[in-house]
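Sanity check

After download, print the first record. It should look like this:
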Amino acid sequence: MRTRSPTNAAGQLRPEYLVLCALVVGGCSFHAVNIERGQQVLQPNTALLVGSVSQTSDGKPSPFHERAMFYFSDTAGGTRFRLDSARIERPLLGPPNHAMADRGLEDVNGKLFAVQLPAGSYQLHFFQIEGTQQKIELERPLRFDLSAGEVAYIGNLDAAFCIRHAYANQAGVAGVVVSVRDRADRDFRLLGEMFASLRQKPLAHRVLDNSLLQPQVARLA
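Expected structure tokens:
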């Protein structure tokens, strides 16, 4: 009996297997994987979720860098995934290394995302700063729909850290302003430069509702 491979021609898990994996592990979130940078054909009944994640700090004299992590799921709770800002390497000597950020987003520790997902309804429901107690579950998740074949831009997911400095170099995050911004003017250009598959495709605006997010994350600031 011939069985179907769980991966496509590009070596990536097929969307239906991503759903299965999420169900098998009990709904645990996985870090979303971008499409290949070269030309890639979308699988049937899927869409591309695109945008950027950024993280800045007001730390003086030195910023505080940790990944900002945004958690998503489909509205049925089956497919769960996470979108992160760049991880910043901090050597013992010298300044932080921003090389992990995507080109054009170095100054905001930014990462672009272009993730293939099954068509359907999704939501942003949780935010966390890696390695800290700064996290929140949204009582009113930010919902959006993905239609088959479309490339949907949900915005720039941003976390601006307010830093606490103390004795013995015990710096940390005192607060964080979490927001969703429409940076299509910047992100569309950068996404097209990074992912060849996006260069000839129309991009649909699905920017998440920042006015709905702000009341829910205000206490983090």
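If your output differs, re-run the checksum step. Summary of this record's structure: The helical segments are 15-24, 184-194, 210-217.
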